[in-house]
Amino acid sequence: MSSIHMTLKQVxxxxxxxxxxxxxxxxxxxxxxxxxxTAESDGIRNIGLGYLxxxxxxxxxxxxxxxxxxxxxxxxxxxxxxDAGQGFAHPAIDKGIPVLVEKANANGIAxxxxxxxxxxxxxxxxxxxxxxxGLLAMGFANAPAIIAPWGGKTPLFGTNPMAVxxxxxxxxxxxxxxxSSKVAKVAIFDRQRAGEPLDEGWALDKDGRxxxxxxxxxxxxxxAIGGYKGTGLAMFVEVMxxxxxxxxxxxxxxxxxxxxxxxxxxxxxxxxxxxxxFGSEQFLTHIEALFSAILAQDGTQLPSDERLVSRERTAQDxxxxxxxxxxxLKGYKS
Length: 334
Prior knowledge:
The chain has helices at 8-21, 26-41, 52-60, 89-107, 123-131, 185-194, 214-218, 228-243, 283-295, 305-317, 323-330; strands spanning 3-6, 71-76, 79-83, 109-117, 136-141, 162-166, 174-178, 203-204, 210-211, 221-222, 266-273, 319-322. The protein is of the alpha+beta class and 334 residues long. A seven-stranded mixed beta sheet has the order 2-3-4-11-5-6-7, with helices on both faces. Strands 9-8-10 form a three-stranded antiparallel beta sheet.
């Protein structure tokens, strides 16, 4: 298959151009284009340029308001809420992150709710900037239903990811970023488009039976990571991201992957902590001991190490985009 070479700067400009052409404001397009560039930098194509057609479709059908202006509501010394206005999550979060850092530095802990929102891309990328300023950061996001509760067969929870960013004195922040499902939903779509079966243990059909057929999985339920413990995690994220922000539950939110149902109105929630305020004045030294103990064992690595390797490679070499996707994306300008 032929491919197009692009630098990361060109990825950003390409995405920005398409987003504005389909109705996004410059501010929204810049936030989303930055997220796409970072995803491509880290080798996460399915949330980078691979997800851009969905963003563009949803701009055109108004499932997301590309011209929404996020509104920040201060609710306390260490708390605040950002109403995304049925727009992209990215500009709402970008607006709130500096305030989150400021409040955490002032109070030792701060929390930010994002509501009336949309898909936020790679959650780990949103907590990483907070950790780069020396704070421990956590993020939660709910998504339209695709996981059945334990013992059931009808989807109720989304893939509902959570992410933690741990600051470090010797390296970039260590990012733990995982969905409540065994794999992200985009992995199912990737296999569907490629005409390939799923791995066993990824999904159930509509009758609750294990399946490796992507079509049956999308009409059924994805499996949670770790069995009943994963559905517990999905429920916890649902409380943090949807209940605390008065956003749609996963089971009431329109799907991210079609053009039906209007804005999803899902939510995100972020917490930042100053680690030296909780009895660990030598936090950075203490955490290095943990990292060193992990890496002392042969064959180990820290979470997000593979992303850092990709980041270094793509900064030098850029990325290669298959011509079919490139031409499909260009078609949105016609």
